[in-house]
């Protein structure tokens, strides 16, 4: 079953991998002009969800364009009614996929 699979890998390894992958995504997004990161800045308090928006494109359109490229993200509302894109990298995602996502986001924002 899937629970046995996760336990065989080890939850601490999964959590560590999730945080590493999401940190790469977050750090690469910060390098892109027009991208704002939403959430906790303190790395020790973060989880693996990365929320962001762009001043160059509406979040729902960015999400749709990413979906056309096979990248699934979610759109969420902030308390101030601003829409954001939410990425949830998981242990099955790798750095190559993260960097591909970054390249696609850069191309969309051109």
Please describe the structure with a list of short key phrases separated by commas or semicolons.
globular; 4 helices; four-stranded antiparallel β-sheet
Short note summarizing the structure:
The protein has helices at 2-9, 11-30, 59-68, 95-109, and strands at 35-38, 50-54, 74-77, 83-87. It is α+β, with helices and mostly antiparallel strands.
Protein described:
This protein is an alpha+beta fold. Helix content is 48%, strand content 16%. Strands 1-2-4-3 form a 4-stranded antiparallel β-sheet. α2 (11-30) runs parallel beside α4. The radius of gyration is 15 Å and the shape is globular. The mean pLDDT is 94.
Q: Helices and strands in order, then pairings?
A:
Blueprint: H1 2-9, H2 11-30, E1 35-38, E2 50-54, H3 59-68, E3 74-77, E4 83-87, H4 95-109
Antiparallel strand pairs: 1-2, 2-4, 3-4
Helix pairs in contact: 2-4
Major beta sheet summary? 4 strands, antiparallel
Radius of gyration: 15 Å
Structural class by secondary-structure content: alpha+beta
Q: What is the count of β-strands? A: 4
Estimated share of beta-strand residues: 15-25%
Please write the string of helix (H) and strand (E) elements. HHEEHEEH
Give start-end ranges of low-pLDDT stretches.
none
The overall pLDDT average reads: 94
Fraction of residues in helix: 40-55%
Question: What is the number of helical segments per DSSP (H or I, 4+ residues)?
Answer: 4
Q: What's the overall geometry? A: globular
* Lateral arrangement of strands in the main beta sheet: 1-2-4-3
Distance between the termini: 44 Å
